[in-house]
Amino acid sequence: MIETKVLIAGGGPVGLVLALELEQRGVSALLVERNLTTTQHPKMDVTNGRSMEHFRRLGIADEIRSHAVPSDHSMDVLWCSKLAEWEIARFAYPSVETAREIIRYVNDGTLALEPYMRISQVVLEPVLKQLLEARGGHVSTRFGWALDSFEEDADGVDVTIRNSETGDLESVRAAYLAGCDGAASVTRKGLGIDFEYASVGQLLRGMGGGVLKAVGSMMRGLVRGERRLDGRFYLIHFRSTDRPFFERFGRVWHIQAPVSGTLIAQNDLDTWTLHVPLRAGVDTDTLDPKKVLFDALGREFACEIIVASAWTPRLAMAKSYGRGRVWLAGDSAHQMIPTGGYGMNTGVGDAVDLGWKLAAVLEGWGGPGLLPSYETERLPVGCRNRDTSVRHASVRMQISAAASPKIHEDSTKGEGSRGKLAEQIRTLGNLENEARGIELGYRYDGSPIICAEEGEAPTWSQEEYVPSTWPGARPPSVILEDGRGLFDLFGPGFTLLRFAEVPVNALVEAARECGLPLWLVDVRDENARRLYERDLVLVRPDQHVAWRGDTAPSDAGAVLDRVRGAG
User: What is the Cα–Cα distance from 326 to 186, expressed in whole angstroms?
Assistant: First the structure.
C-alpha cells in the first residue's frame, strides 16, 4: 500500500498547480492522472495576471513564459466579416513587454504585478508537469492511473487507483483526497455531490430584458435563415504555414466573425484553433473539417488538421466543494463558458486556496475551521465567474444578432452595414478581456477566517478593480521605491506588513505559541502605505488580507486563532 499525505486526482492545470503548491510547502503528495500524457486538446489559451502572480510566487512564472507566445506580441482582438474579407472593429491590447512598462509607470495598485500570458493548455500542462517533477522530493506523479474509488474514515482516506491500460488496481492511504478530476469527477460522484446545471437562458434572464431581446432576435433570425443552432461548437485545431493569410490584418490573438465563429492564434507561428457554432441536427461524423474551416474563413489554404471534434459549453456548479477529508477543485466543482478565460484561472485560485489550507492542517497549526472555509470562500467566486462568462457570451450573441448578411458584400451597402456593426461592437465593448474586477477584485466576504470590519465594504464591479486592503481582498500590488515588488517580500506563511514603528511583539509571540508561520516585513514607502490604508496589514499565504489595523490587536491570540481556523 502506498502512503501519502494528499492524493491529487487529476493532472490537468489545477491538479498540477495544487501539487506545486504542496511541493513548495514540503507536503508529501501523489498525483494520479488517468491519461498517459498531458492534454492533446488546445482548451484555454490565456493565463490572467492573477494566476501569473501565483506562478511568480511559486517561482515558475519566468520558465512558463519562455514557452509562451513571445512577450513582444500583441493581444489584439478583432471582429471581421470573415478572415478573407473585411475588418470591422478592433480592440487593441498591449504586449506583455508593454504591459510591464505600464505596470511600473502607473504603480497605483490597480494592476497585477504580472501581466497576462498567451499560452495554450497543450503547452502549459507539460511545462507544469516538468517543473513539478524537476523539483522532486515531496510530490510524485503517476500518469496512466485513475481514481477508481475511495472510502473516508476519521483518520484518512482509503483510495483505490486503476491502471488505465492494464486495469490493475493499487491501494493508497492518504490523509486527504483532492478531486481535480474534471467534469466527470469520480471524487464528486463518490461524495454524492450533485452538479446544479443552468442554461444560458436562465442566467441571461437576470441580465435584463435588452439582452434577452437581442439574443432572442438572433435565434429567430437564424431559424428563418435555416441556420438554427443547438448550442454545440465544432473545434478544429490545425497547422498552417500560410501566415500572410492569417496575419492579413496584422498579428492578432482572437479573430471573431458573426456566426462563423472564433479563430484563435495559438502560437503566432503555425498553430490555430477555430470554434464554429453548429447547426441543429448536424452529424459531426459526416463533416469534413477542412471544408468547415475553409467556409468559415472564406477561402482554401494549405493546412494539417490536428484535432476536430464537437463540444458543448456547460454551465454547472457543484452544490458543495467537499467535506471532511475530501475536497474538489477546478472543473470538478464548476464549469463555465470559455468566454473570459475563467475556467482554468478560477481553478488556479481554487488550488492555491486549498493548497495552503491542506498544508496548514497537516503541519498542525491549521484549526478545524480552516478546510471548511475553502468552500465558503471559493464557491461564491465560482458562481460569479460562471455567470460573468455567460454575460460575455451574450455580447457575442448580440453582435451576431446585429450582423446583416450584407456585411459580406463588396458594395456601398456592404460598407455601410459593416460600419453600422462596428459602431454596435464598440458600444457593447469587450469586457471579456477587460474585466479587472473579476480578475483581481474578488474578496472573501463572509469568510469565517477573516477578521471582518464594521462599516460598508468597498464597491465591487466586474469592470474595475479598486485597490483596497479590506479584509478578504487581494491587496494592491506596488512597486517600491527601490524597484522591488511588494508581493515579492511576502513569506510562504502569513506576512505582517508594518508601515510605521508600531509595536507588534504580542502578534509575533502569539504566532510562535500557536505555530503559525509569520514573516514580519517592514516597509517605508509612502505610496505603499497610502494604498494599504493601515499601519499593520496581515496577509495570508494566498496573498489575501486576513486582518488590518493601525495598532496591534488587544487580543493577538484571538486574531490568529480566527485566521487559522481555530477560533
Answer: 12
Letter string b/e over residues 275-308, b meaning 16 or more CB atoms within 10 A of that residue's CB: bbbbeeeeeeeebebbebbeebbbeebebeebeb
The residues that bridge with 239 in the sheet, in sequence order, are: 271, 304
Question: What is the predicted pLDDT for the residue at 306?
Answer: 95
Quote the longest CA-to-CA distance of the chain.
78
Task: Give the Cα separation of 268 and 65 in Å (integer).
Answer: 14
- Residue 281, phi then psi, degrees to nearest 5: 85, 0
DSSP notation for 405-424: GGGG-SSHHHHHHHHHHHHH
Residue position matching grid coordinates 441543429: 280
- What burial class does residue 406 get, using C-beta atoms within 10 Å of its C-beta: 0-12 exposed, 13-18 middle, 19+ buried? middle
- 196-224: b (≥16 Cβ within 10 Å) or e: eebebeebbeeeeeebeebbeebbebbee
Question: What is the tens place of the pLDDT at every residue in 77-99?
Answer: 999 999 999 999 999 999 999 99
Give 485's strand partners. 479
φ, ψ at 486 (rounded to 5°): -60, -40
Report the distance separating Cα 309 and Cα 184, nearest Å.
Answer: 18
Q: What is the pTM of this model?
A: 0.95
The angle, 0 to 180 degrees and rounded to 10, between the axes of the packed helices 372-402 and 412-428 is: 160
Q: Compute the distance between CA of residue 402 and CA of residue 397 in angstroms, rounded to an integer.
A: 9
Tell me the pLDDT of the chain averaged across its residues: 93
pLDDT for residue 452 is more than 80: yes
Backbone dihedral region for residue 144 (phi beyond 0: left; psi -120 to 50: alpha; all else: beta): left
Average pLDDT of span 24-49: 93
Residue type, 262: T
Where helices occur in 37-151 by DSSP H, the ranges are: 49-57, 61-65, 96-106, 121-135
